[in-house]
Amino acid sequence: MRRIIRCLAVFAFLALVPGLLAAQSSASGSQEASIEGLDLTKPALYNPAGRRDPFKDLLAGKEFKEKAGSGQVNELAIDDLFLKGIVKARGKLTAILSGPQGFPLFVHTGTRFSDGYILSISETQVVFRKVNERGIPLMRPKDIVKEIAAEER
User: Fold this and answer.
1) Which pLDDT tens digit goes with each residue over 42-98?
2) How far apart are CA 9 and CA 23, in angstroms?
3) Distances (CA, A) of 88 to 55, 93, 96, 106
4) Rounded to 5°, angle at Cα 27 from 23 and 28
5) Confidence (pTM)
6) What span, in angstroms and rounded, lies between the C-alpha atoms of 92 and 109?
7) What structural domains does the chain harbor?
């Protein structure tokens, strides 16, 4: 019984193969016919009809710099920072700050934040220069001093 079913499956397959090959060759023939009607020497023209051109390079002529390597901590505001300590290593002072989540942040003079930057670091204090307030530039920059408490020194 199994032999009969196998034989019928093989005969059905062999009967369908020539039909599939003929259909495939006629499809490729129709593609060739449509390509033959085109003049490939002329450049193709695109009419956007008011829509954005999908073939236009959106980044053409622009240079991008990565913010990760620029020493900026853009998402933190000066008011949200807490001074935890100051360390001197190789003659250079480094301030240890923490943000609202409590993660430590090691910063140097010149590090930028969302509303200013670090102006100077001494052995007991860090001076921040605030240049904007809530995204609006200040007429006169404010200097904010954060000191280490005397008992923590």
Assistant:
1) 777 777 788 877 777 777 766 665 544 445 566 889 999 999 999 998 889 999 999
2) 21
3) 55, 4, 11, 12
4) 120
5) 0.52
6) 10
7) 68-152 (2.30.30.830)
